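Sequence in, structure out.
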Amino acid sequence: MMRRSVLKQGKPLERKSPMSRASSKTPAAGAGLLRVAAVQAKARAKELKLPKPVRSRGMKGRPPTAEEARFMSAVAALGCVACKKDGWHNPSVSVHHIDGRTKPGAHLLVLPLCAGHHQDGTGANPTLIAVHPYKARFEERYGAQRELLAECVSMLTNNEAATVAAGAASEQITVE
């Protein structure tokens, strides 16, 4: 099926009104120039634009609850448990999750470790055995991680009992 055109074959196209010479006054006349300028500006912006940073999902696992955060702070206040086994006291620690950060209760299964005992090559002393990546060597020297956690919990309960006893003694002194 052929479409019929309003134009007749062999006849030239005729305008009903002549074209205006003052093309800069009409809004359509400048549209082409504006479009070109916009394309050029976009190209310049692409050249100057820095690549987008890689999007990070942050640390895996959920954030700790307030109770878990208090426990982790108390454990961290003990100092590095591995340095303690070597006879030193190192208060600068990071919290090591024994069983990852994603399992239920993971924020309660933590050890206070200094940088050298936590990650290989990060501490001031390069001879320290780090749990990452030398877990077997670390546990051979310092004991199983859950045993170390039990020691930390017993230290916390001893400190807590000592604090309560000291508080009770100070109350007795002030009462007399």
